[in-house]
Write a structure and sequence with these properties.
This protein is of the alpha/beta class and about 300 residues long. The chain contains 4 helices and 16 strands.
Length: about 300
């Protein structure tokens, strides 16, 4: 029993037009729909990764996970045994699947669907000491627009990390990859190091959604393109300790973030991975610029 994919996240936002512009500049494209929500997806995929609903303030509308085939009914049975009741979709939410609320009150939709993966990129041609893969060719990037390949993970604020971990591991079958004391914890339902993470706060909230791109160059060029479009940088370029990925965060219009990432740890299903409890100083990064004072601020509590 387990969910096997993070399908999308959905936000309520006070201005869908501004939100649509942000994510289009970020590199996503519109997916036409008639449900009143803005649907956005990576250009190489058919399924949406972000939905934006109209609301009085920014908040998480729901998360959607995939559990195809036998896993879907096994997940429903696991939820029943855990005493988790099903509910109707929230206003405007997509029909179908299992709808429930996690211990923080976040709406969660488990759908009988599999993940959709983009076509593979060509191998990177990087020169390293003793390993030459680019010969008689210049390596600097030409003009490059950000082209996110897929949604990788979502990070949420929570007032009780251990309670959320218990729910998502026991009721939905996700696996703990790593944590840093009582500051942050990382869960996976795919071969990515994490698909869902929780950051401690006085209350629930949405922190960021993270999208994979093809290189460190593309992270930097995407960050530059967003700044030229008028969006404020959040934090980066840097490299995380937990998950190991390179990152750059862009501030979205509501005080949270969207992240470009590249080169995350890969954990096969049958791998004997041992979750580690890192010291607090490793919770955020190995190298990069200083962390902004408001990076861990849950603006939804204001």
């Amino acid at each position: 029993m387990a969910v096997r994919a993070l399908l999308h996240y959905a936000l309520e936002v006070p201005d869908q037009t501004v939100g649509e512009k942000f994510y289009r500049n970020f590199g996503l494209v519109d997916e036409p729909a008639r449900d009143g929500a803005v649907h956005l997806r990576p250009a190489r995929l058919e399924r949406e990764s972000v939905l934006l609903y109209a609301g009085p303030r920014k908040r998480l509308h729901h998360l959607a996970f995939g559990a195809a085939g036998d896993e879907f009914e096994a997940t429903r049975e696991s939820l029943r045994r855990a005493g988790v009741g099903e509910m109707d979709p929230p206003r405007g939410g997509p029909e179908g699947g299992i709808w429930l609320r996690d211990p923080d009150g976040n709406a969660v939709n488990v759908r009988a669907e599999t993940s959709e993966l983009p076509p593979p990129d060509p191998p990177l041609t990087l020169n390293a000491p003793g390993h030459i893969s680019r010969v008689a060719r210049r390596g600097y990037p030409e003009a490059m627009e950000p082209r996110p390949r897929r949604l990788g993970h979502v990070l949420l604020f929570t007032p009780d990390i251990d309670r959320q971990l218990a729910f998502y591991t026991q009721a939905l079958g996700m696996k703990l990859s790593d944590r840093a004391q009582r500051v942050v914890a990382f869960l996976r339902c795919t071969t990515d190091h994490h698909n869902l993470a929780f950051l401690t706060s006085a209350g629930p909230g949405f922190h960021h959604g993270s999208f994979e791109v093809g290189s460190v160059d593309e992270i930097a060029m995407g960050a530059l393109a967003m700044q030229r479009a008028g969006w404020q940088p959040g934090w980066g370029l840097g490299r995380h300790v937990i998950g190991s990925n390179f990152f750059f965060y862009i501030r979205d219009p509501w005080g949270s973030f969207a992240e470009y990432f590249h080169d995350i740890d890969y954990i096969p299903e049958d791998c004997a991975w041992q979750a580690r409890d890192f010291p607090e100083q490793d919770a955020l990064y190995k190298w990069g610029p200083p962390v902004p004072d408001d990076f861990g601020l849950n603006r939804e509590l204001a």
